[in-house]
Amino acid sequence: MTIRSALLALLEHKPMYGYQLRAEFERRTGATWPLNVGQVYTTLSRLERDGLVEGTGVDEDGHGMYVVTAAGREEAAAWFTTPVARSQPPRDELAIKLALAVTVPGVDVGTVIQHQRSATMTALQDYTRLKRQASSGTADSDLAWSLVLDSLVFSAEAEIRWLDHCEARVRRAAAERADDPVAPAAGPSAGPSAGNPSAATVEEVSR
Amino acid sequence: MTIRSALLALLEHKPMYGYQLRAEFERRTGATWPLNVGQVYTTLSRLERDGLVEGTGVDEDGHGMYVVTAAGREEAAAWFTTPVARSQPPRDELAIKLALAVTVPGVDVGTVIQHQRSATMTALQDYTRLKRQASSGTADSDLAWSLVLDSLVFSAEAEIRWLDHCEARVRRAAAERADDPVAPAAGPSAGPSAGNPSAATVEEVSR
DNA sequence: CCGCGCGTGTATACGTGGTATACATACCCG
DNA sequence: CGGGTATGTATACCACGTATACACGCGCGG
Questions:
Q1: Per-residue b/e over B166-175, b at no fewer than 16 CB within 10 Å?
Q2: For B13-22, how does the pLDDT look when each residue is reduced to its tens digit (9 = 90+)?
Q3: CB of A36 within 8 Å of any CB in chain B?
Q4: B63 and B102 inside one domain
């Protein structure tokens, strides 16, 4: 319920109308997670249904304004103090992909890792490029957007470290299997510790 | 479309029925992202609708079996080779929360950070505890599940580093504002790296 | 023996997230 | 004056996630 809570928090600051909420959200987070306008309106009506905000007619310009209720203020405060649950983390597509890549035969894990690695590297470069032009002002929103950017950088770096780690472990697992006494050694398999460092295919890893 | 692709990849391995798919998915990823059974069936029908899998009646035990089609095999291969798009990363609830915390008045950012930090630390301890009992066998699925676990560890560590980084930057920003009549006074006074034991390698990250 | 819990297995409903799009107004500019 | 663009509201539609209904088989104790 990320969007829901975020809109609630923004409304706690001051009453707003739909379009304005979207603008404020994006101003604080950069264009990192573009928020679709439609979602704002549907979420607002759900918030009103649940008694967390209240639509107070239209203002002088004809905008449908919303104010947060007491219950809403309470829930917003709870959102800020309650840490996000790491016990059930959001699905990580990359982790799932690699987990399947090492278990499903016929997939070249090394290639998957390298493709992802270079993609993440370019993203990282984009972030650092953005950072130069983002750290100009001293406004709150600049600080927030800069922190969000840092978050992206940190997680991208972690992802690269993890990919390297995976490559090493996959290679090691392949090696263990190769000189496993009972291993059928289907073909010389070009020696996992041979020239190409990224040549660990599933044929070597699994089965 | 994570689930969709994952199921497709599993079916590429061998034909299966719904419940079995869920079991295979969880065996490879541990219980990290428990996959709801219902989702399997709805996803399977969507896959069939799109011509990527084909339901081949029931087997001798009455299970509704599914096989992947040529188009499905193609899409699965594409999924493995195409890196996950970092250009539009999934919404990060924590990053959003902090970005709003520093921009909405009346929120104690320090408290938010500390709560999250301790929550992430406990999660990290849980992971390392799990790791000991997970690295026993040598089967494919053990390697996969172990890699997934490593992914969680890496990202939790990154999160903690980021939180420390945020704390330092927020403190610095507050200090600048405090002794900032007009000109940026020289001394950062309190010193951002006061007593923090986990002093993140903030590198040349920002400012 | 029979009911009961439990694991296995399939299917559907419902709320939310996310995206596209329809629709309306205002304002600038050629 | 007519069209493009920015602002603003609203709705439709699909995908995801969870809960739940429903059915079957099997072991176990009263």
A1: bbbbbbbbeb
A2: 899 998 999 9
A3: no
A4: no
